[in-house]
Amino acid sequence: MAPRRAVQLSLKKPTYAVCVVGAEMLVNVHRGGRGRGQCRVCVAGARGMLSAKLSSGHQRPRDLAEHLARDVPRDAKTFRVSASSKVEVLMAYDPRRVTEPTGKAHWPLDANVDVVISVDTASKDLNDLKVKVSYFKHQEDDPLGHSMLYLTAVDVSLDVDSSRTGKVKRHRGDKTWRWGPEGHGAILLVNCDKDSRGSLEPDLNRSQLVSLDDLQDMSPIVLTCDGPDELFDRHKLVLSVSLSDSRRVRVFRARAPGGTSIFDYKGVLGPQHLSYRVERQLGEREIGFCAEGLTFPDADFSGLVSLSVHLVDTVVGMPWHRALPEVPLFTDTVAFRVAPWIMTPNTQLPLELYVCSVTDAHGSNEKFLDDMANLALKANCKLVICPRVENRNDRWIQDEMEFGYIEAPHKSFPVVFDSPRDRGLRDFPYKKILSPDFGYVTRELLFSGASSLDSFGNLDVSPPVTVGDTEYPLGRILIGGSFPKSSGRRMAKVVRDFLAAQQVQAPVELYSDWLSVGHVDEFLSFVPTSDPKGFRVLLASPSACLRLFQKKKEEGYGEAAQFAGLGHKVKRSINEMLADRHLRNDSFHVQSCIDWNRDVLKRELGLAEDDIIDIPQLFSLKGAYAEAFFPDMVNMVVLGKYLGIPKPYGPIINGRCCLEEKVRLLLEPLGLHCIFIDDYLSYHRLQGEIHCGTNVRRKPFAFKWWHMVP
Prior knowledge:
β40 and β41 (642-646) form a beta hairpin. The strands form 13 sheets. Strands 2, 4, 5, 7, 9, 10, 12, 14, 15 and 17 form a ten-stranded mixed β-sheet that branches. The longest helix has 25 residues, at 581-605. This protein is an alpha+beta fold.
C-alpha cells in the first residue's frame, strides 16, 4: 500500500481536495496535526495517495502551525463524520484503547482515531463529493463547529499486462514484479529484430518506428485519466522513467488512437527523455502507449525497469510557494522485466539446420552437404546452406553463433547470439539472420582478442533438470573453462556475465582447457529419449574405447586396423594401439579430466550414473593439450531421434566397424537412429567435427520462463 497523505480541515473555510480513485485519504480531525502513533486500520484500504489545498490563499510556512491549532474548537471532546454516498469512510483505531461507539455516540477526539476516506469512481463535476466533520463538547450537545471537505475524484492509473495474459487489464493491486506461476508483473521484449527490410540495423537502434509491424514486438501500456476536464486544466499528468532505466526502455505514444502510419507514433520516453507531459484531450479517459526493451539483462542490469505516472498540481500560489519544487499529488508505478535470452537443448525439436559450403585443398564439402540434406530430410528439418560468398570459407558455424529466443505473453521470436569470434562468418549473423521477427544480440571484447574458448562450440545447455529441491525447467547452460583456481583459458567475462544475468538457465562452468580447441562439445552431448528421464548425457570415454579394443583383441581381432578405408591415413591395428604406451598414458590423462567433469555434471545437473552413456573415444596429446585421435563421435548433430555422428573409421570386424557397432548398441535401444557421416578431411583434420560445422535452430520451450523461480 502506498503511503497516505493527510488533508487538514478548517473551521472557517471549506477545504477543497483532489482524491484518486482507489486511494486512501487521511482526514486530519485533530488539533495541530495528528502527532499520533501508528494505528491499526480496521478495514483494509486501497493503494494510493491524495492531494489537498485550502479554498483561498496560502498560509506562509511560519504561520502554518498557528493556523492548524485553530482548526478544532477549543472545548471539543468528540467528533462525528458524514459524507456523500459515493465516499467510503473508514475509522482507523487501536482497539486496545478505543471502543467503537454505538447508536448516536461519537468518536473520542483525543484518542488514536483516524478518519480514512476513499472513492471508487471518478467525479462527473468539480467538488461534487463532500465530507463533513462535526465537533462536540458532550455527546448530547449541539455541535461546536463543522469542517467541510469538498472532493473531486479523479481516476489515474498506469496499467500493463501484469497478469501475463497478453492483454492489459485494470489492476489495483501490487504492480511490482514477482517470479512464479502465481507471480505478476509485465514483460518487455528487447526489440532486437529488424522489421523493415530496408533498414540496416536492429529496430532498437532507431528512436522512431520504421514499421507498424514493430508495434507487435512492444508491450502495451494504458493510462487511465478519468475525471472532470476542468480538473486537468489545473493538474498535469507526467510520465517518467529514471535515468538508469531510460537507457533500457523506450516508450511510444500514438498521436491519435489507432494510428495507421509510423508517423502517428512519437517516442516520449527513453534515452535523453526522462519525462513526458501527457497531452490529454477533452473527454479522453484512456491513453495508449507501447514500450520496447533496449538491452538484455547483464552484469550491471537486473532486467527490471519501472515507469511512473504522476498527477501534479499546476496552480501557482503565493510568492513563497513558487520557489517550491513540483511535488506529485499521486504517483502510480508499474514494473517490467526484460525477457531473458533463452537457449534450447538438443531435446527440443529441430526447425532449421545450418551448414556452410566451403572449398579447400581437398576440394569442396559437397558430399558432406548432401549427407546433411539427407539427415535434415529424415528429421523433417529445413536445411539452410550458407554459401562461400557469405562465409568466406569459414566452415565453423557453430563457433560463430548460438540460436535462442525471447518470449513475452504477447509475442515470441528467435534471437541469434553472435560470438566474439571474428573470422570469415563474422558478418553472417548480423547481415543474413537479423530480419523481421529474428533478433540479434552480441557482446564485444573491448580490450583483448577472442580466445578459442569464446567460440560457441564451447557453449551448450542441458535439458530440464531437478537438482535436489531446485528445479531448472529450462535446463542449465554449460560453458568450458580452466581448472578451478588455475590460470588457464576461460570464456570471456563479458560473455559469462551476460549468460548468468539471464537468470533462467543458471550456468555451470566445466573444465575444457585440457583440450587443444577447448570446447565442451568435444567431450559431451545430450540426446533425447522417450523414457521418463527424457534424455541421456553422452561423454567421450577413452577407458571405454580401450576396454572395447582389449575385448576385440581377446576375441582374436587384434590385427583389425583403425582408419581402415582411409587411403591417406596410416592404419593402426588394435594390437599396436593397445601397446602404444604414449597413447595409453594420454588416454588415462584425458579420462581423468572427463571424470572430473562427470562429477560436476552429476552434482550440478542432478544426474545418476544411469543417466550417462560412455561413448568410446581416444585422444592424444599434442604438447599439453588433447586432440581426438579419430573422429570424435560425441561431437554429433542431434535432430530429434536422428543423430549425425562423425564416422570413426574404426577396426572392421566381420565387415562392420566395431566402434559404430558399439555406439549403435548403446543408443539405438533408446529409440535413436545413428547415421555415421564422413567428415574426416573437411572437418576432423582441421580439429573439428560435425557439431562444430553445423548449427541448429530449435523449437522454443512450451514452459513459460516467468513461471519459474530462479
